[in-house]
């Protein structure tokens, strides 16, 4: 085993050991060789050194803003001014559609810029989402179609060879399984006559996407036993195309086919379903594996490894029990070997995350037995989903009122990463009162502290979460006064979970859920601005951006123009890191650095245009149809509800900052955040959420954001 393979194996082992309380895992017939399993990486995460020496002298904002040099430039409501004086900052709701708009407006009226962490995190989301959707459109969809057509054709031949044997139903199920995917990808695809009825029923359930706990016609094929707990039930509301997949026919159909492959679970506890899985593994040849791996490895780089058993594990066991290239006859007729294989499959690790609807523990007490199985293209293990899994029913039990915690809160994640403020808010909301919640949270926090950076940054998804961790830390002496209060701690949490929402939005298909022009004019004023001093976040953003570019370029999945854009984003993050370090150390900024702060809006606009060029957007005027606001569901309550996480229109933030020995107000752009339960058969799309925001039918922002939010104009 080479060094890279040993490293990868040891890292996966470390994660599994650290999360043991979470419990985790992941051919053409005749004598065609079984595929050689690939084990290739993309790019490694390289930490950027940060020099933090906080030395900013404490300051207070005087009543009436009398010690603020540019106070006459602004007109605040009484409520907003009180918060600005008390906390040193205030967030003002404002219906701006994108971050760059705020900074360009500042440029025109000579308002000092306050460059926010929010704006830079949003910038990375734009690129991440662009890279993923263009990869899916230009490459992955074609690979998926080729793989599906090959498997459908060969599964029909395999069925003919197994007719009138004990394996006939398992082979027939596979024909139906691939026929569903083929029809989703291409409505003109023919459905084999032998499975026509089951496939049409399945497709109708997917198209209607209304049922959240309903027997699957395909997966239950041949099931003569009407045993409630043995029936395979599916949540068909998961097939509602959302995120960026709702924007085009190609992505909608890709989404539904991949959701089908990622959710259908050939349960280890069911021998006939396991036969189907083994037949699939035997059907794979090197070409099929090439198509499969060309989908799996890039999405692994973006999101992470599968949380379920799959082709790799079953192929390895086939070879172990039957030899290198067993024929179909050997696999299906050697009873002793089948018995041995079936027994060894039972010993494989279960998934860490349950993503299928099951009954409660009184009816199905052994959850691992119920959910463990083979998935053709399994959805991915993510750290946040594992955290959520351990903070909802069954891992936590009833509270004093007899209620069950069926849905988590996004604040669970920063609390698990060590945020005392997040935990205190959860406590005030009554979320920590469920039996076992405090103990489970403490256990998770200890495991998070023990995880190495290499374990946290194996893919872009994990590195994104790692980038957000500094936002859970309270800022102490030596930081600007506006950062040294509870209100700022809460503002950081809103930034954290808004960026987290963008991450969940971008990866909604892959990550498992448990059951987010230059210009100027006017009078010359001193408009020197300020960068929110979060140098660790900017350093990690630079490292994440470099990892993104290097990984995709290593597989020739990156064009020159996009590589240049990522290089520019990395360089901007490094420049903001340097400026933040200088601000904290009380070192003067150069004129070039002040110019960079002034020009921030134009740079954001450039990045925004790059991120939407695949959709024909070539002007900032298109921002109305492509706003920053987005929505995603991150967890499902089988009783018919999902937890929606949304970012709304971009808010303004006004901050009193020290510049060259005097105080001034600088203005920037920040996220607005929403969380609410919503019917699962109406999982929200970005378009519907945008409509709700524009008609003001959206739910209110969380109460805990009120300590730093106020309207700019006093209501009559």
UniProtKB/TrEMBL annotation:
<feature type="signal peptide">
    <location>
        <begin position="1"/>
        <end position="27"/>
    </location>
</feature>
<keyword id="KW-0732">Signal</keyword>
<dbReference type="InterPro" id="IPR022601">
    <property type="entry name" value="DUF3160"/>
</dbReference>
<dbReference type="Pfam" id="PF11369">
    <property type="entry name" value="DUF3160"/>
</dbReference>
<protein>
    <submittedName>
        <fullName>DUF3160 domain-containing protein</fullName>
    </submittedName>
</protein>
């Amino acid at each position: 085993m080479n060094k890279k393979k040993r490293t990868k194996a040891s890292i996966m082992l470390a994660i599994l050991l650290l999360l043991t309380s979470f419990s985790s895992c992941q051919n053409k017939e005749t004598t065609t060789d079984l595929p050689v399993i690939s084990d290739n990486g993309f790019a490694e995460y390289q930490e950027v050194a940060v020099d933090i020496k906080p030395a900013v002298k404490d300051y207070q904002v005087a009543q009436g803003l009398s010690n603020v040099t540019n106070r006459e430039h602004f007109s605040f409501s009484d409520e907003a001014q009180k918060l600005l004086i008390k906390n040193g900052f205030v967030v003002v709701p404002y219906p701006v559609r994108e971050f760059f708009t705020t900074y360009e407006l500042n440029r025109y009226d000579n308002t000092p810029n306050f460059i926010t962490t929010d704006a830079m995190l949003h910038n990375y989301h734009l690129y991440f989402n662009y890279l993923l959707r263009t990869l899916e459109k230009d490459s992955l969809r074609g690979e998926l179609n080729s793989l599906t057509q090959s498997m459908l054709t060969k599964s029909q031949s395999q069925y003919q060879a197994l007719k009138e044997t004990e394996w006939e139903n398992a082979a027939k199920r596979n024909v139906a399984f691939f026929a569903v995917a083929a029809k989703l990808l291409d409505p003109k695809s023919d459905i084999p006559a032998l499975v026509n009825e089951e496939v049409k029923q399945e497709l109708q359930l997917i198209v209607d996407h209304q049922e959240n706990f309903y027997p699957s016609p395909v997966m239950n094929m041949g099931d003569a036993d009407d045993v409630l707990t043995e029936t395979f039930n599916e949540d068909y509301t998961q097939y509602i195309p959302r995120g960026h997949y709702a924007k085009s026919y190609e992505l909608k159909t890709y989404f539904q086919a991949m959701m089908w492959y990622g959710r259908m679970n050939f349960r280890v506890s069911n021998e006939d379903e396991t036969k189907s899985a083994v037949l699939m593994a035997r059907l794979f040849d090197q070409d099929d594996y090439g198509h499969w791996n060309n989908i799996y490895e890039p999405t692994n780089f973006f999101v992470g490894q599968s949380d379920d058993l799959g082709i790799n594990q079953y192929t390895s066991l086939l070879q172990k029990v039957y030899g290198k290239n067993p024929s179909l006859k050997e696999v299906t007729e050697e009873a002793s070997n089948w018995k041995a294989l079936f027994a060894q499959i039972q010993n494989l690790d279960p998934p860490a995350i349950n993503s299928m609807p099951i009954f409660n523990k009184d009816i199905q007490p052994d959850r691992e037995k119920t959910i463990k199985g083979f998935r053709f293209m399994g959805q991915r293990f993510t750290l946040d989903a594992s955290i959520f899994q351990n903070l909802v029913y069954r891992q936590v039990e009833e509270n004093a009122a007899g209620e069950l915690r069926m849905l988590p809160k996004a604040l669970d994640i920063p609390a698990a990463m060590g945020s005392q403020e997040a935990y205190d808010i959860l406590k005030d909301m009554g979320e920590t009162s469920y039996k076992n919640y405090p103990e489970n949270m403490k256990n998770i926090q200890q495991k998070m502290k023990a995880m190495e950076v290499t374990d946290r940054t194996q893919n872009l998804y994990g590195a994104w979460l790692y980038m957000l961790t500094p936002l859970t830390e309270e800022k102490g002496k030596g930081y600007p006064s506006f950062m040294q209060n509870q209100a700022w701690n809460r503002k950081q949490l809103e930034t954290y979970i808004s960026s987290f929402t963008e991450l969940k939005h971008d990866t909604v298909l892959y990550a498992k859920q448990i059951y987010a022009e230059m210009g100027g004019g006017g009078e010359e004023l001193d408009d020197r601005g300020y960068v929110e001093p979060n140098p660790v976040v900017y350093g990690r953003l630079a490292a994440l951006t470099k990892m993104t570019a290097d990984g995709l370029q290593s597989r020739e999945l990156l064009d020159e123009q996009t590589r240049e854009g990522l290089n520019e984003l990395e360089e901007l993050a490094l420049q903001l890191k340097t400026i933040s370090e200088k601000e904290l150390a009380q070192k003067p900024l150069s004129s070039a650095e002040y110019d960079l702060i002034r020009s921030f809006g134009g740079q954001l606009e450039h990045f925004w245009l790059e991120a939407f060029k695949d959709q024909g957007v070539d002007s900032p005027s298109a921002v109305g149809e492509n706003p920053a606001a987005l929505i995603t569901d991150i967890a499902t309550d089988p009783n018919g509800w999902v937890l929606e996480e949304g970012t709304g229109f971009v808010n303004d933030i006004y901050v009193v900052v020290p510049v060259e020995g005097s105080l001034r107000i600088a203005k920037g752009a920040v996220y607005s955040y929403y969380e609410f339960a919503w019917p699962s058969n109406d999982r929200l799309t970005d378009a519907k959420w945008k409509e709700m925001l524009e008609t003001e039918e959206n739910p209110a922002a969380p109460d805990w954001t009120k300590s730093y939010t106020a309207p700019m104009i006093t209501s009559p």
